[in-house]
Specification:
24% helix; alpha/beta; ten-stranded mixed sheet; Metallo-beta-lactamase, Chain A; 378 residues
């Protein structure tokens, strides 16, 4: 395969993205399985079934990487039912999907009081960190150091498993047979050190994926559920180090399911006005032909019940993002639960190849039948 494929699954207000690399490696970002395949009215995808089907097509029973950006339920729902976890036999049987390398922010290791799927992932991360393999942890705050010391380990013992913000993830690069590098923007260790408890949305794993395929470069930003204060810190830190290119994007994954809080404290009447640093991120760093993806329910219409719901997506935030995306002459804003139709959403499939990015528009019957494409020249 001389291209990378990104699949953004329609899981409601939640996140799941599968990245298929030209060398065959599979990277899954988050897992939120809310679909009810037994309900004829259900519009959210049967995520477990869809992922199993794709793995079967590829002749695989495992994923090279599963990254949990943070442990809120809309990023890990039913993970304890789907994946093989090494730390307990309860989560091991032949039907479960194995994880070669687990990626988590440090807060997912150190937090206390975790429940349900979050607790299972935390225990798995702790187990792998103790074993010294099969895990990548992002940032090294004081609480991680203390946790390691409580378990007769040290930061130095596990330094090869830790990647700080401002660095790329080992094992992924551009050149030769490899086509992608992941640059870590968050978590920032000082945030966790300043707070008495973990802040999942503030201490999350955020990154830029940079693909180079056939001489063409394509960049994607994944900010998970970052609010505008976290994005401000990322922008200021990146600018301070003179790495503005690490915030360029062809694919901008809209944070927090199109919540206005990722732009500003104020929703606005018709359109959210972002704080200056966030405005710079979206308005100045987007590249010609780029697109934005909202992993969310359909954008509400004015005056509807959904429009009055305090939960995202917010119409006002969507209006801002649409203005930004439309100026790039690309596909605009694509919403997971609206693509290709609200009545029957299917995964958003983006191909990254020698022509840059191409959105594969498919029929409601599945992703195989390509209706049209839209590409940016590399």
């Amino acid at each position: 395969m001389t291209k990378a494929i990104l699949r953004f699954y329609p899981v409601g207000n939640g996140d799941t993205t599968l990245i298929e690399l030209p060398d065959g490696r599979l990277v899954l970002i988050d897992f939120a399985d809310y679909g009810d395949p037994g309900n004829s009215e259900e519009k959210r995808i049967d995520l477990s079934g869809a992922l199993r089907d794709r793995l079967d097509e590829l002749g695989r029973d495992s994923l090279d990487v599963v990254a949990f950006t943070h442990l809120d339920d809309d990023h890990c729902h039913k993970a304890s039912e789907f994946f093989w976890f090494q730390y307990a036999e309860t989560y091991q049987d032949d039907t479960r999907i194995k994880i070669s390398e687990l990626w988590v922010p440090a807060a997912a290791v150190t937090e206390e009081g975790s429940e349900d799927d979050a607790r299972v992932i935390r225990q798995e991360a702790r187990h792998r960190l103790k074993q010294g393999s099969g895990i990548r942890v992002f940032s090294r705050p004081d609480r991680l150091k203390e946790w390691l010391e409580d378990n007769d380990l040290s930061i130095e013992d596990r330094a090869h498993l830790i990647t700080d913000a401002g660095n790329t993830i080992p094992g992924y690069s551009v050149g030769g047979d490899e086509c992608v590098e992941f640059f870590v923007h968050s978590p920032l260790a000082w945030r966790l050190n300043e707070n008495t408890v973990e802040d999942r949305n503030g201490d999350l794993f955020a990154f830029q994926a940079r693909f180079v395929v056939g001489g063409s470069e394509t960049k994607a930003l994944f900010f998970s559920d970052a609010d505008h204060e976290t994005l401000l810190e990322i922008v200021e830190t990146t600018k301070h180090h003179g790495r503005e290119d690490r915030l360029q994007w062809d694919i901008g994954k809209i944070p927090h399911h199109c919540s206005y809080l990722s732009l500003s404290d104020e929703k606005g009447e018709e359109k959210t006005v972002p704080v200056p640093e966030v405005a710079w991120l979206w308005e100045e760093q987007g590249l010609t032909g780029g697109m934005m993806i909202s992993s969310s329910k359909p954008i509400p219409l004015v005056g509807t019940k959904a429009d009055k719901d305090p939960q995202p997506p917010h119409r006002q935030a969507a209006a801002y993002y649409k203005d930004v995306a439309n100026k790039l002459d690309g596909e605009g804003v694509v919403v997971t639960m609206e693509h290709p139709y609200q009545s029957k959403p299917k995964p958003i499939v983006v191909e990254v190849g020698s022509r840059g990015l191409t959105l594969l528009k498919v029929t409601a019957g599945g992703t195989a039948a390509i209706v049209s494409t839209s590409a940016r020249a590399g």
